[in-house]
Amino acid sequence: ERTATIKTLKEKERYHDFEMTILTKSGEERTCLVSAETLRFGQQDYALGVYKDITERKRTEEALRESEARYHALIELGARSGEAVVMLEDTDKGIGMHLFASDTWAQMTGYSREELTTMPMPDLIHHRFREEALARHRRRIQGEVLPGLYEIVIVRKDGTEFPVEATYAPSLYHGKRVNVGFIRDITERKRAEDKAREMRV
């Protein structure tokens, strides 16, 4: 890289924001952002350079890319299994705001993905289940792991209701605490259970 840098300087006389990996005295690799230009004093050319250590920034960017890849994999997994995927965060706009909503969740609820990202999840939950769901959300957003699935009723955009089975897990996304949830429509299963109970009576 050093040879390439010197060659670039000779050809261009100056360059800005060139990334270079250097070794510290201890042998640790660090990534630097370099800006340099050539200066002539008499018959001698000199290189004047400014080095900015961006190692931590590069590590953060890589971590974010890995985070994005992980959540894309979760979304794909949810789509394949017929489950909706949501990512919820607390903001000044509300508790449990949709940071992300999959296409499956939009289809289930009747809202567009754009509409969902302006709505808090509690607005979709039937009032009978809302307070309990909020309590679980608050515990998870604080990092508590609550095992198991639970059932709630969701109210669609057109006012109709349907039962779902949900499981959530606390996580970090871009450094923020979020809840990632998988939600399955269990309407048909509940109908089958009701029918089976009627037959036993």
Structure description:
Helix content is 39%, strand content 39%. By secondary structure, it is an alpha+beta fold. The strands form two sheets. The protein has a five-stranded antiparallel sheet with strand order 5-4-8-7-6, with helices on both faces. Strands 1-2-3 form a three-stranded antiparallel sheet, with helices on both faces.
Report the major sheet. 5 strands, antiparallel
Order of helices and strands: HEEEHEEHHHEEEH
Q: What average pLDDT do the residues reach?
A: 81
**What fraction of residues sit in β-strands?**
35-45%
What is the quaternary state of this protein? single chain
Describe the structure in brief:
The chain has 201 residues and is of the alpha+beta class. It has helices at 2-12, 55-81, 103-109, 113-116, 127-141, 187-200, and strands at 14-23, 29-41, 44-53, 84-91, 94-101, 150-155, 161-173, 176-185.
Task: Name a few traits of the molecule.
201 residues; three-stranded antiparallel β-sheet; 39% helix; elongated
Give the SSE map.
Blueprint: H1 2-12, E1 14-23, E2 29-41, E3 44-53, H2 55-81, E4 84-91, E5 94-101, H3 103-109, H4 113-116, H5 127-141, E6 150-155, E7 161-173, E8 176-185, H6 187-200
Antiparallel strand pairs: 1-2, 2-3, 4-5, 4-8, 6-7, 7-8
